[in-house]
Amino acid sequence: MLMIDLHSHILPQLCDGSQDLETSLAMARIAVADGVTHLACTPHIYPGVYPNSSSTIFPAMQALQAELDARKIPLQLVAGADVHMVHDVVEGLQSGRIPTLNGSRYFLLEPAHRIPVPRFLEQIEAILEASYVPVITHPERLLWLEDNYRDFIEAVRMGAWLQVTAGAVAGMFGRIACRCAQRLLEDGVVHILASDAHGVECRPPVLSEGVEAAIRILGDENEVMRMVLERPRVILDNAGPKRVPLPIEASGQMPAYMGYQLKKGWFGHVVH
């Protein structure tokens, strides 16, 4: 199956992903063998830690694409970034300092892992009002998802997209991340799956295992393939409606969080 992977740290020496050209080439070969045709180069932009910008990302991507072409590795790279959620994201997008995915209105937005982002929904609203679409990365791996689950659902209702890590669906990030990914999938709020690849042995650019696990969870191969082909293509083409209808709307099913029902929750406690 052919797939598009919109989250990787394949560019060498820009963040905590690949640290040399040989690793990047090996990652590219793994992605191609898995069926990936297009791979987004999305190094971290994290002020004070990874001070990347368009001026570092584009030359690195072009250099790596030239190496791939010279070796006849059939992988098309596109530019982007994994943008840490800070106060000046909109300014960075508008100035061009922060690259969007393939020059589209979509970009990867990474919330803090350990603690809730202050005024999370206000920041999402400001980004959307500036005519950008944040693709929130790996919510299933955020330690504060459990207590703030409805905020992510509301972000999706507002127009944000969610990107779940394929490896998390396949159980490679532990039981809790796997269960969170499953809940997001079953609640119909996952727009895309991506690898968030960082290397060869650890966190390789493999989507197929997560795709297979998602199909087992949902029982709907067509919907899962939309997450790794149709919707990523919408992003790369900067196409489609401003807000893509979610599976829950098409099916008419009412997830538990919408009914505010008391029930035994996915996280092992009572959910309101």
Automatic annotation (TrEMBL):
Pfam families registered for this protein in UniProt: CpsB_CapC
Domain of life: Bacteria
Entry keywords, A to Z: Hydrolase
Gene3D superfamilies xref list: Metal-dependent hydrolases
UniProt enzyme class: hydrolase
Family according to the record: Belongs to the metallo-dependent hydrolases superfamily. CpsB/CapC family.
Protein name: protein-tyrosine-phosphatase
The organism of origin for this protein: Thiothrix nivea (strain ATCC 35100 / DSM 5205 / JP2)
